[in-house]
Amino acid sequence: MASCHDTIVILDFGSQYTQLIARRIRECRVHSIILPASATLQQIREHCPKGIILSGGPASVTSIERPKWAKAVLQEDVPILGICYGMQLVAHYMGGKVGQAKRREFGRAELQVLDSSDLFKGLDKGPFSVWMSHGDRIEKLPQGFTPIARTENSPVAAMKSANHAHRFFCLQFHPEVAHTVHGKQILKNFVHGICGAKSTWTMGSFLNNSIDAIREQVGRDKVICGLSGGVDSMVAAAMTHRAIGKQLTCVFIDNGLMRKDEAKQLKKVFGAQHFNYRMINASDPFLQALGRTSDPEKKRKIIGRQFIHAFDHEATKIGNVRYLVQGTLYPDVIESISHMGPSATIKTHHNVGGLPARMKLKLIEPLRELFKDEVRGLGKELELPEDMVLRHPFPGPGLAIRVLGAVNLERLAILREADVIFIEELKSNGLYRKTWQAFAVLLPIRTVGVMGDQRTYEHVIALRAVTSVDGMTADWTQLPHDFLGKVSNRIINEVKGVNRVVYDISSKPPSTIEWE
Question: Based on the domain organization, do 111 and 90 belong to the same domain?
Fold first, then answer.
């Protein structure tokens, strides 16, 4: 179904930055949709695109292992922007020549603009910094194309079709990343100036469209929503409740893997939202299913299956339930399954790759195309409490993936006590909202210590705090040393079984935010 908004279609050839292209387009208040490189021409046309973007990717256009795609896209009567690999595709299939660069270009490069119209309209001719990531380059331009920017290593760092019947614009660098100085303006020039797309896509319009879509999909059927206490599931529940009212029953499954006193706190939050909800204690089945499992991927899949079993059971008790609502976000999807393109699976999220192949309930995932900050904006549109909207993310598998190694009641208790101290101190020192996510991790090792003049051999707690916008990338938070010292001192003195605390100073990438 085509969007009621002007849409830019992005074909994903496997770039780690594809989702950032979608974000930048949305920042222009224009709807964007990511399709796999293998999407058919018909699938692309269904979205009535005002423009098409060919993403970057790790392949070479000269390789026989390059992704398959509908080359007829190049004949569509809409502007096309090729980025990195996308530029090389255009050059290769329009009659130019692509070859291996004498010197590969990764990282910052200085761009000199040769033509300040179209893509570079309103920008000075530089040089200014752009972000390169390529091993091939354009050696011969296709007929009718002209270079519009260069770097020291790439004589054709950008090009356009000057006399061609179709409008092609291509960049060897990545305008979507923050390292490219004028990247947002370049994409804005393409979306608004070249494609003529109107700025009509907002969280308000997304909310209204989503409510209509949920009503149309559900009809008169009953629906359950899996509540976790996080902002994602709460926003999904509030949207669905606004759409279908009493047809929705929200279900909170206490899997025994929650933070300290989580169920008690959430009962108050859920009650204030005036929708039907049930709180189910399923701790024993979850912990029994996990057993002595230590492999993180197996943990996630076990938990995913147990959640579905629990929801199926509740759906049977309610009667005539056909749908399950989940707060799945785009980062969950892109890290779990590489169905958008040839990108790698980073980890299986319990609510995506962890689901069983055959389910009784059909899924409704109204947030599937959104990022965390967009969901927070949606929460504000729904007038949810600020404390809920700005709450730190908490993983669906809960503490099972923060207890590294086998999960049991003793290790969960240690982690809960350490974690609550960390969060309490962040809040009391005004640091909670200055971090995007913070938590404690129980490591699967013990270390020697001295407590009360006696040798100890106890557990290690790692503290993790990051700053981020959408969770796709993150920097470790530079918390004050005296603050970390106070937290460490409290944990070691108040949590029995811990004699060492460490702080994680890794960024994403190369690390992930969660340890498992």
Answer: yes
